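re: that chain from earlier
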Amino acid sequence: MRPDTPAENVDHPAEAARLERTAGLYPEDAEALLLRAAAHRELSGDRPAATALYDRLLSTDLPLDAPHLVRALKASNLWEYGHEAEARAIIEGLRAAAPRDAAAWVIVAESLESHDELEAAQDAFTQGARLLVGDAEKPPAASHPLLFGRHRVRRMLGLPHDDWDIQADTLHSMPISLDELHDPKRIWSLGSDNPAELAAEITRLRAELGAYREALSRPYPVAILHWPATELTELLTAYPTLTTEYPSHAEHLATIESSLRELAASGTPNLGIVTGTVPSYEAFAASESTSPSDPSLLPQYATTLAARGRAEGWPPEVGVGCWCGSGRSYGECHGTTAH
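^ sequence. v structure.
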């Protein structure tokens, strides 16, 4: 949830203000935009302003995609500027609610960890892992940070590896092992006068930072525009010239899958799909002072939706429903070799 750009290269107050303005223009995307704005407020040191944004989201009448994550971020932020009691109350409420949101659990556990409450942090990581990993042989990607964080805290507590720690080691793909990255003795090497020890620690820190940035700070995806059947019918009824772009809904879906596969084969990373709606598209066309019947507007619309956090990653994870909305799993639908 946190921006990846180093503080010295970004005017965080200005970026936060820009995102807040954009949220006003696109209320359907306010959650993603205001969370990013709050992160910039935190990075600028204006934590009360970040809390105000979290409260703004929590008080909205619109349903939130990740209300537990918003509360976790609010608690973490409050604790950082002296509101420990309120932060603890939110954390206890979240743990009692037992959300199935890995990011919320990570934020809660890392907040406890950052305040040296390692046993409580391990309990939070473990509670989240029970809910989201369980006995799965292949944990969902969203749960990996839970297992990595739990491994780190348990290492600091001097606890022996259990099955989840072993699983975390298996999932970890960096050249330096988790055991080495999470070795409590590393802290002593930072005070060493031995250049070789300092150089080794710098290498480990770079690997750890690289893994963290890769997991949490990916740019918005290269996204393909998807129209559900009812939306495409409405679009073509209103703007029949776009029929040349979309001869049929079935062909539209097949083109999406084939385009994404071609991009993947060419080495393009971070692919995604954005779902369009006619009202949203018309509003975008108006903002660009262009007619919705202009085909060149379609890729611009897709890029804008992706930049507003509306993209779903492609390909879907194993067992997840197909992106087309058929109700079947991706592997049984557009993920088959027949498409």
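The beta strands are 222-226, 271-275, 312-314.
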